[in-house]
């Protein structure tokens, strides 16, 4: 169960235990999915992309994590973010649907992710970011 009123829809959810007793549900949403009450809060923008809910167990209750989307922005085109584990680390994998107004349908590069002590998720800079 999630607390209602934040977003119109939470697409392609993924439930994951990030620490014992700390659960997240990753989801995708678009800029048009944000409720007016959410957008009225200071600092909240109509992001598109991947974000997450947090909760104490696999059945919730879940609430939207504070702050901006985990990966996204007002014009972001990443979609269907998934947590994966490989090589002893957690990674965020996303799909890119559109670039420059054209359908792409490409799998993005894995992005390193960290689970903080409070259970929140932090997207880390990747080696590719350092090369730019």
What does this structure look like?
The protein has one domain (11-131): Glycosyl hydrolase domain, family 43 (Tachylectin-2, Chain A, 5 Propeller), CATH 2.115.10.20. Strands 1, 2, 3, 4 and 5 form a five-stranded antiparallel β-sheet that branches. The protein has helices at 36-39, 127-131, and strands at 11-19, 22-29, 48-55, 63-64, 71-73, 78-86, 89-99, 102-107, 111-115, 121-123. The chain is globular. With 132 residues, the protein is mostly beta strands.
Summarize the structure.
The chain has 132 residues and is mainly beta. Helix content is 7%, strand content 48%.
Question: Which key features would you list for this structure?
Answer:
5-stranded antiparallel beta sheet, Tachylectin-2, Chain A, 10 strands, 132 residues, mainly beta, 2 helices
Write the layout of secondary structure elements.
Blueprint: E1 11-19, E2 22-29, H1 36-39, E3 48-55, E4 63-64, E5 71-73, E6 78-86, E7 89-99, E8 102-107, E9 111-115, E10 121-123, H2 127-131
């Amino acid at each position: 169960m999630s607390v209602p009123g934040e977003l119109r829809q939470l697409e392609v959810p993924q439930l994951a235990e990030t620490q014992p007793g700390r659960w997240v549900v990753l989801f995708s949403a678009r800029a048009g999915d944000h409720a007016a009450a959410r957008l009225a809060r200071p600092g909240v923008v109509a992001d598109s992309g991947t974000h997450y809910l947090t909760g104490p167990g696999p059945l919730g209750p879940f609430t939207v994590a504070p702050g901006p989307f985990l990966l996204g922005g007002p014009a972001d085109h990443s979609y269907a973010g998934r947590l994966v584990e490989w090589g002893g680390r957690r990674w965020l994998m996303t799909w890119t649907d559109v670039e420059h107004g054209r359908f792409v349908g490409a799998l993005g590069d894995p992005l390193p992710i960290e689970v903080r002590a409070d259970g929140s998720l932090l997207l880390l800079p990747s080696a590719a970011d350092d090369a730019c």
